[in-house]
Amino acid sequence: MDVQIGTGLATYPRGLSKAASAAESEQRKCQSTAFGCAKGNDRCLSGNRPESRRYMWSKLDAALPSIKEQLAALIDCRPEEIALNRNSTEGLCTAIFGIPLAAGDQVLLSLWDYPSARAAWAQREQREAIGVITCRFDLMDNDDDIINAYANAITPRTRVMQLTHMFHWNGRVLPIKRLCELASAHNIITVVDGAQTFGQMPVSFRDLDCDFFVTSLHKWLGAPVGNGMLIVNERQIDQTWPLLAPFDPPPLRIDKFEHWNLGTYNSAILAGIAQRSAFIEKLG
């Protein structure tokens, strides 16, 4: 198979990136025509041209509901729980900075969680005086020892558990379902970093019953770089703050976490998600 090595630990057949390339090419044609550039000179391109905007809204963005339906079928959630973004770090930060917490509330994480997640919680600790508690265990400890490390760290002030589905350090898969059950028993919110699992192994959001699940679609799904997915359990949508202030007034539901709020975004790369989702579906 003709394979391309993708940024961020991903491999995918070259042919499956053609959808994004074709969409981007078509959008550029609209831009150049609108600006009177017959050959599509880069200096003549402007995303603000009417033809470009119409193509983006009527073709590319109009396909997003069906893309969400494909993703929802793969990960066993509702399309209305999916927000598309740029990568796992953006999804993690949306959850980390969006969960309502007060000074003195505690968050559990581990030494092995991804650096961007640990840094985001550290920033919130400095800014809002929450407590960030590190659960200590070895990467090769058995499941029971890892669960005990989290269980022993729980206090009456524990509000959130930051969990990594698969550690990027060595591929260790955590007993996430059991950890989510532990959290649920103590009314603790769970944020699951699934950057290294979705697309590589079967994942059921409904079975895990976590509150937030984030992943990068350019990794094991193999979509174009710049695609990510945040799944927010319906029970958490209304009370969670968006990372970026929405353009539209509430109620927005899952839309408040979407890439729309960036102002300028690349619709063309989203076109590659559908091809990759269909490919993974065929693999079973």
Provide structural commentary.
With 284 residues, this protein is α/β, with parallel strands linked by helices. The chain is built from ten helices and nine strands. The chain has helices at residues 18-34, 50-60, 64-75, 88-98, 115-128, 143-153, 176-185, 205-208, 234-237, 267-283, and strands at residues 3-6, 10-13, 82-85, 106-110, 131-135, 158-164, 189-193, 212-216, 228-232. The strands form two sheets. It has a seven-stranded mixed sheet, sandwiched between helices. It has a two-stranded antiparallel ribbon with strand order 1-2. Helix 1 runs antiparallel to helix 2, helix 1 (18-34) packs antiparallel against helix 10 and helix 3 (64-75) packs parallel to helix 10 (267-283). It starts with a strand and ends with a helix. Residues 1-7 and 30-46 have low confidence and may be disordered.
